Fold each of these.
Amino acid sequence: MAKITKEKKLQILKEATKENLIYTDTHFHSLEIEKKEIDIKNLLDQMEKMSFIALDIGINESDIESRYNLLQDYKNIYLSTAIGPWGVKDSAEKHDALIDTLEANIKNYPIKAIGEIGLDNYWKYGTKELQEDLFIKQIHLANKYNLPIIIHNREADEQIINIIKKISFKKNGIIHCFSSNLEFAKIALDKDFYISFAGPITYKNNEELREVLKYVPINKLLIETDSPYLSPTPFRGKTNTPLLIPLIYQEIASIKKIAIEDLCLNVKRNLLTLLDCS
């Protein structure tokens, strides 16, 4: 396929609302977008007008009420709840109290997934052992309620591989914002996980990531913005929103040599299957 120029990408974005396409954003953070001084209600209204399907991601045990109140009237936006590695405490006992709060969230709100959870050795939150404790306890909670998990992985490939190899999952999950190598992708796929790609797939020097994308089968592929982070080219470095996702879809369609209409249909089907939504 011909290379997509910057001008073409801008045109794609401009025309996105005019196309008869339904985009699915499998990972965005509504409250974090709002903190960037984006008019979140206007954004959500635009998403609804475009028939967006999206999964709003939890980052701590106490954000669910605000997110539910914000999103409850948008029927195609689903909710997860979880504590990322940045929420690690200084003892396993304190993690038990957090798990109790998450379990209450599952009982009191329409939760579709546990995420994002995982490990982060870049920022070095707490100790590796305590990060793993919080991660594994949330996996067990997901298994208890037959919910998929959404994994955050930053410089922790070996640890995460060792953990997911040992655990039987009642429901599979997502490797969010995939940034690892093909070996990791193959292991995740063997465990029946979905692989989700974000804005970095559009970055110039990410050829290894594009090779992983070529390998991932269409029935295990998801697409996300991780907004307000990781804006795709040509908006890299600026605040991201779900409305930029057509640029990521166009890039992935080009790499996978698939019509964007088919890509939209498959990603939608994949997410709704994972979340047990009709």
Note: The radius of gyration is 18 Å.
Amino acid sequence: MQAWQVHRNGEPSEVMTLEDVARPEPGDGQVLLKVRAANINFPDALLCRGQYQITPPLPFTPGVEICGETEDGRRVIANPVLPHGGFAEYTVADAAAVLPAPDALDDAEAAALHIGYQTGWFALHRRARLEAGETLLVHAAAGGVGSAAVQLGKAAGATVIGVVGGADKAAVASELGCDLVIDRRTEDVIATVKQATGGRGADVVYDPVGGAAYAQSAKVVAFEGRIVVVGFASGSIPSPALNHALVKNYSILGLHWGLYNTKNPKLVQHCHEQLTELAARGAIKPLVSERVPLGGAADAVQRVADGLTTGRVAVVPGDTEGEAA
């Protein structure tokens, strides 16, 4: 079978090579899956660079989120077990963690439902306890993680403010349903949020960016607001001023979704049921901006790493040309 292999750490476009390799053999408690679509996540780039919290042995295949098909024909979504990632024709996953793919979504959309939407659901509902009528601020609102949070916030009845970088991404955020879109490249994020909220600020801030975005979050969060830290796509990890959190009465919450798979897997199943129901009634629908063939994976991972994409980019092994959504 064909699979992308990483033999040394570095930029995805430089270290990912497409090779003919043996089909992986499932271990105890694992299942073999034919990959129908693999969603590209920012952690795939971090894995290539050797900067992720998990460091699989070299060589390995990236791709942490797929829609696949079991040997008995079931369509499922799963997180492949590294080093056998999803940018391949076949992969393996833990049988206990495989979830049914929602009928309302195609393969690429189903592949994109898992990590980003589970992260958003846990962040907004489990950690921040977002309520209808509250204001939610989403950084990188046109990206894969941010777009999921925007849709989930709207589904929860929140007023959603999206922060993006550039006019093209602002248009995407508007189409996703943001009530207000702020282009950080041309607008003052802090002043615009305060003006839009009558000086109150945002009740919940969803931050997958870190760096300067977190500094803005601390200045616009409302009294008794909640900042949920879900990642550091900017590459800069902030050092929060805890005296500021004390003076303004706000909470700083961390969210590492992967821990729920070991600490409380029943909640992951419950979340999937909630997401499936939301997808069935059209309240959420992953934004797949591009579908690329297996041969285009390395270039696509690099573009995601460089922040040049919107929504999700999916690798479809059976596709020979790829297409825009």
Note: The longest helix spans residues 265-280.
Amino acid sequence: MRIDAAWNGFVRQTSTLLTLLHGKNCPPVAFEIRSDEGRWCTVHCPDLEDETTDVTSAKAEEAPLLTRSQLGLERLASWFPLARKLSPIPHLVANSTDDTDRSVESLLLELSTAAEGLYRRLYPDARRLSPEQVTEVARKVQSLDVDQQAKDILCSAIKIYLWGPSLSNRLKQLAEDVDGVIPDVVGNSKKWNNAIQKARNGFAHHLEKGVITNDEAYAYYTLRQSLRWLLTCRILIELGVPHTDLAKAFSRYERYQRFLRNASRDAPDIYMSE
């Protein structure tokens, strides 16, 4: 195996998994390979980062969502083919950790797109119209008494994307997927779904104008965090972590519980306190 193949197939994927579990960047700090002669050799490359962890800091002791032993050796081994199947989505989620300095708008747009991508990977055959229905609709469109250019545009749309689930459908399904683990992650599901769609479309199509207010920024930050937790949970479910184990892990994970406490304050319309 070439060094670059080992890096991309194992080292980078392990870094992504640890970042998801710890909620903070876990970059590779050392890399060794074993030669044909059985000798371990240190690899030097630009992507390795110096170990800067302050072992005296209380943050170094902050418990992860799941430890490697709780995850289990089988699921750890299963992570590598799953990460390849879902790539680059796990990396996008891992890059949205709390210590990032990127704008909340950029992260929210990126994570909403990642949610669409995750849905497509998990449900590749999902569609609202069958191929036969698409063919029939396209045929009937051609018989309409409208301009030919309009008919061509409508036919193209129905053949390319109108047959597929909408963003709303995809978000709803992902929220339902994690409902048995973290049912409170989206608050009021209908309002959350609408807020994600509005923000995503506004940023993607440059519909939002002017400088956002503090209240809007806090609400966007909450939506961005909700997507991060939802996607992390759904990826771990796909990895095979039992719902009961995940539910216990999230219930005692301080970073997630902090999100819930702040959400009712920063996005009260969606996360109203009982």
Note: The chain has two domains: 3-125+165-266, 131-160.
Amino acid sequence: MTINRRALMGLIAGAAFAVSAVQGIAAGVLRVGSYPANPPWEFKDASGAFQGFEVDIVNEIAKRLGMTTDIQGLDFKALFVATASHRVDIVISSLTITNDRLQSQSFTQPIVTGALGIATKDGAGVTSVADLKGKTVGAIATSFGEKWLKDRAAEIGYTDYKSYDTVSNMLTDLTAGRVDAVANDVVGLRYAMNQMKGLAVPVEIPTGEKFAMMLPKGSDMLEKINSALSDMKTDGTMATIYKKWFGVDPAAGSVTLTPMPVPTSAD
């Protein structure tokens, strides 16, 4: 059989990709993608090292699998590209399991049930979602908060929407009055309020969204990682990490304490 030059180059490129996709595993390194400005879930400290709730969890997972972690900081939208291209083995960034995402990504069992927060300037007069009518609102691009706002645009009646790549830029615009209110994970917003003056989170919206860790679709590491999470929930490790970062014990019977299988739907 004759193989022309173009076909040969294609074979070489494919082989190189296959090698790179397993290189991290072969070397005992868990390649982690993370949005680096998402405290207390994950963030960089003054020395540039990653810290946070999910950082502690993924480091513990790696330890139990006999691996170490290599955590890369990426823009939020780039996280999905990184898993799809196998640039990373797993992503942490308070990611919501959705049916749309499950079509192209894999998720571990949930570790936290989330709620959406609406942040405003102090004294803005927003005490409910209804008060967003006629306002300019914003959220992080491709986030659950963005989808929630856009799905309810007609119902809420806000006049303008702004999309952001980073939480810091979003909150800077909120402080400067370039946006009237923003929607994001309530835990992250309240943590940010401790660092910033003049802002508040007057509205919390229970959503039932479930946060989990994301892997490439069909990853052969998924079941091992999910099993490690179940063990952490059972032996008390998850509860200890949760209290360290959130200041309270996880609720009895919550997804933080309940071992679960790999999800096949967002329900």
Note: Residues 114-208 form a domain with the D-Maltodextrin-Binding Protein; domain 2 fold (CATH 3.40.190.10).
